[in-house]
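User: I'm writing a tutorial on reading structure tokens. Could you give me a worked example: one chain, its sequence, then its tokens, then a sentence or two explaining what the tokens reveal?
Assistant: Sure. Here is the example chain.
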Amino acid sequence: MKTLDISGELACETIPAILARQAAERPDALHAIFPHRTLTFGELDRQARRWARAFAAQGLQPGDHIATLMPNCPEWLPVYYGALQFGAVPVVLNARYKRQELAYTLAHSRSKLLVTTTSIEDHVDFVALLRDVLPGIAGQDTTQLQIDAAPDLRAVILCEGEGTDGFRGEAAFLDRGEEVPESRALAGGRDAKIDDTSAIIYTSGTTSSPKGCELTHASVQNSWSTFSRIVDLAAGETVWMPMPFFHTGGIGPMTAMLDRGAAFITQAHYEPEPIVDLIEQHRTEHLYPGFPQLSFGVIEHPKFDRERFTHVRSLLNVGPPAMQAKIQSLLPEGAVLLNLFGMTEGSGIVTFTPFDAPFPVRAETSGLPPPHTQVRIVDPETGQVCPDGKPGELQFRGGGAFKSYYADPDATAETILPDGWVRTGDRGRIDENGFLVFLGRIKDMLKVGGENVAAAEIEAYIQGLPGVQLVQVIGMADDRMGEVPVAFIEPSEGAELSEQGVIEACNGQLARWKIPRRVEFVSEWPMSATKVQKFRLAELL
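And here are its predicted structure tokens:
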């Protein structure tokens, strides 16, 4: 398989070292832009050092796990970088977790400290949620908790608010850190190695308990330097990045921007209008929504003017060809739509489309691996490598591969083969030009009357029908056929679709057994961090 024609060395410095470098070189340059607040490189570095000192004052040790439960808010950044400067391992928990997932990941990660916030309590009350998850927290010493549900947890810190029963306030926590010399607090970060764990990110857990992917300083940088090199990201440029910080699509591009001295725009809750205003105000060059649920809200907004927004040079969206064609048509002239294949186990990016590739290549394929990564297609039954053109399981190895699943050697051994190849559980093929074509999850296959049917194949056709914003296909049990397809569809704004109309549009275009037997229309999707949870769609049936 060919590789991307991009040059560059492998990562050679840790993430806190990059922050220190940028804070010294461009202390007053903007790095993080929120609707009502900004952070420069210098401000972020200073605030992160305060958190590192506070972690030391709490009695934590380098290598300990520090969990965060926050959306994309300004207070998340100093906590994350402060943990790395201290030499701890950030456990970046999904801010959408509810009781079951949160209880499991807090206990499984063996986190010594949890940092959360009250800044979005109009949307999510994390204090109430944690009181439910951590029974008995009320009335305890806020510096030395003893919680049966999370036996390693010693304190919960509350940002953007006063401390409350069982929760310690940010101000008091940071003030205590003033007692610790900065040189001692930062020693662990200075001693960190490039292959040390820089974050634990739990997978979405759509079919089982979440698994904690251990990503390293090197894997995150190697993976996401692909993006910065493809778009030629320069110091002082700006990227719209709505993906959550607790996802590789958040931490990853954030790291690439840190390394390049660039800035990013984000917000705690997705609201297109203020983002469109910020994109125009900062003359943003790159849009990195990643997924259509985020892309369309901005590029279809009445204030997103194709004539005025000619400063936009690229947009990244993962989707089928019909969706990509629609998005490209909404972009300013000259802006390039990009695509990729990625996963948490690859630190975010496994393949990426070249910037100068023809549109059909960028719409129909997931691109090529960077030079530090190898990709192959393997027959899932025999384990033999497939020739080009034949579909099978996508596997990869190289610079962006994750280290392991935390405290789960069996799952690690099942996923990372002895020679370093990582099994993805995804179907793909290599086309005649050497590009990866993504074909969906291996397990996302329906068995209709004995015929194997890929949900992605049905989705690709329906996605091209007029008025379809997004479609997801699942299987529904059937007494005669064993299983039949069901399509869930989000109509485009103003579109009028009917179940019968969709089914009739499939007649003569898809084989009879591939045509949905039922169509459900939705306005919202059950989501993990970034993906539609198909098992929850199945529950609706």
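What the tokens reveal: The chain is about 30% helix and 25% strand. Residues 393 and 427 are 5 Å apart (CA to CA).
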